[in-house]
Amino acid sequence: MRPGGDTPDDAVPPAADLRSPRPGVETITWKGRLGPMGLGVSSRTFRPTTITHVLAQAMEVRRGDVVIDVGCGSGILGIIAAKLGASRVYGTDVSPDVVDVASGNAARHGVAHCTTFFQGDLFSALPSDVRADLIVGDVSGVPDELAADSGWFPSRTGGGRRGCELPIRMIREAGRRLAPAGRMLLPTATLQDEPPILDAARAAFASVVKVAQRAIPLPSAIAEADSLKRLAQEGVIHLGTRGSRLIWDARVWRCDAAPGSGTA
Ligand SMILES: C[S@@+](CC[C@H](N)C(=O)[O-])C[C@H]1O[C@@H](n2cnc3c(N)ncnc32)[C@H](O)[C@@H]1O
Questions:
Q1: Which domains does the chain have, with CATH numbers?
Q2: For residue 258, how far is its CA from the centre of ligand 1 (angstroms)?
Q3: Ligand 1 contact, 71 CB (< 6 A)
Q4: Among 53, 104, 159, 214, which is most buried by a count of CB atoms within 10 Å?
Q5: Which residue's CA is the nearest one to ligand 1's atom 15?
Q6: Alpha-carbon distance 129 to 111, whole Å?
Q7: Model-level pTM?
């Protein structure tokens, strides 16, 4: 998936990381796992949110793993994977300047030698022989209309009409990109049509286990969006309440291929 909607990290670089960013690229501070780290982001870069933090915590990287970070944004999750011992990290994103932005961040954090970023749809830009031990499958996954109304996605991409179409396509394509006994980390949320995504994951993987869950308040400006109300009435998205606030649930799933095989 997944939406932003929670507070992005602050725009203050740590003192040890004051490399001047390129024009049009500002520096924010990643305060999650292995942070603080300065990260360059442009106006087209998705800024890390609570779910990025949850995914970073959930990532189990073994020394020597090959990792694919799909929907890599600033490259932060791939950079963390490299720092945790991955031998090779490939990141992809549709954002037009992802190669420049994410590669700059990898260089800044000393992992340029083992990271490569590509611009393109899902796995399509990767060399055909790349197979991963771990796929971090974090592509956009809120309904297109909500993505547009919320402004959460600087690359202006949603996950399809119901927010499940793109994640399902990613799950189906992931099989060809997994090494034997590979695994995928998959975020889902109640701000998308979640059940068909989990059905697709259960059909493609030998096991699908929830490893994290968070309830996240919806910003009040978005709570008023017509698309949000309509999608809730249609039963596409599901919101709860905490006091006067609307909340949505985010979950992270560990999807394991059968031992000795990829998923397909
Ligand atoms: C929720 S953001 C996650 C970014 C990053 N992983 C993070 O946590 O900061 C989803 C990312 O998926 C990208 N994206 C959307 N559609 C895509 C596609 N078809 N193929 C690859 N990336 C895509 C968006 O540009 C966005 O950067």
A1: 15-256 (3.40.50.150)
A2: 27
A3: yes
A4: 159
A5: 140
A6: 22
A7: 0.92
